[in-house]
């Protein structure tokens, strides 16, 4: 009987230790919320599509390293989208004002966007700078965070 009680208490104690270690480990939290606010929307039809990337592969035009994505119907000049379940790490967000519902950024034969676009950190995007790099758009995510992206409808000068 004493052995059973001792084993029971040992079992409880070990579970509490494991739970405390899990809470103390910042990498254990996979319930981080990222809120993305997109401002400057010109069109009142279509949708704003957002992609969260966790590395440079495919950023910002394909879904190669996409962590999460979603599209939101446009209802004004601004939208807010919350993403849940992210792990601590480095991320970047790409946004498209998807007017024709094809879930991608349409570009002309020169590669210049024909729809609104934007990326986190709002770097300069011009013919000189080219497609934004992951390192220029990335940010560290350790706790819940809100970022703002200003959508562009033309390249920067």
Structural features:
157 residues; five-stranded antiparallel β-sheet; globular; 2 helices; 8 strands; 34% strand; alpha+beta
Word description of this protein:
By secondary structure, the protein is α+β, with helices and mostly antiparallel strands. The protein contains 2 helices and 8 strands; from the N terminus they run H-E-E-E-E-E-E-H-E-E. The protein has helices spanning 2-24, 134-137, and strands at 32-39, 47-53, 66-73, 78-86, 89-98, 117-119, 139-141, 145-150. The strands form 2 sheets. Strands 2, 3, 5, 6 and 7 form a 5-stranded antiparallel sheet that branches.
Topology:
Layout: H1 2-24, E1 32-39, E2 47-53, E3 66-73, E4 78-86, E5 89-98, E6 117-119, H2 134-137, E7 139-141, E8 145-150
Parallel strand pairs: 1-8
Antiparallel strand pairs: 1-4, 2-3, 2-5, 5-6, 5-7
Structural class from helices and strands?
A: alpha+beta
Radius of gyration equals 21 Å
**Rough shape?**
globular
| Biggest sheet record | 5 strands, antiparallel
In terms of per-residue confidence, which ranges show pLDDT below 50 for 5 or more consecutive residues? 10-27
Termini Cα gap: 81 Å
The averaged pLDDT comes out at 86
Indicate the percent of residues in helices. 10-25%
Q: How many strands appear in the DSSP assignment?
A: 8
In N-to-C order, the SSE pattern is HEEEEEEHEE
Question: What's the helix count?
Answer: 2
Q: What fraction of residues sit in β-strands?
A: 25-35%
């Amino acid at each position: 009987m004493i052995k059973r009680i001792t084993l029971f208490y040992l079992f409880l104690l070990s579970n509490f230790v494991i739970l405390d270690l899990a809470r103390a480990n910042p990498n254990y939290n996979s319930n981080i919320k990222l809120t993305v606010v997109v401002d400057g929307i010109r069109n009142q039809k279509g949708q704003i599509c957002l992609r969260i990337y966790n590395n440079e592969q495919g950023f910002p035009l394909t879904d190669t390293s996409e962590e999460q994505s979603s599209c939101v119907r446009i209802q004004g000049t601004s939208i807010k989208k919350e993403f849940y379940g992210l792990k601590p790490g480095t991320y970047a967000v790409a946004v498209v004002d998807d007017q024709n519902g094809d879930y991608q950024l349409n570009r002309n034969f020169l590669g210049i966007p024909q729809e609104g676009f934007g990326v986190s950190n709002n770097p300069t995007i011009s013919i000189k700078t080219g497609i934004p790099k992951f390192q220029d758009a990335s940010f560290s995510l350790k706790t819940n965070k809100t970022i703002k992206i200003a959508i562009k409808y033309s390249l920067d000068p």
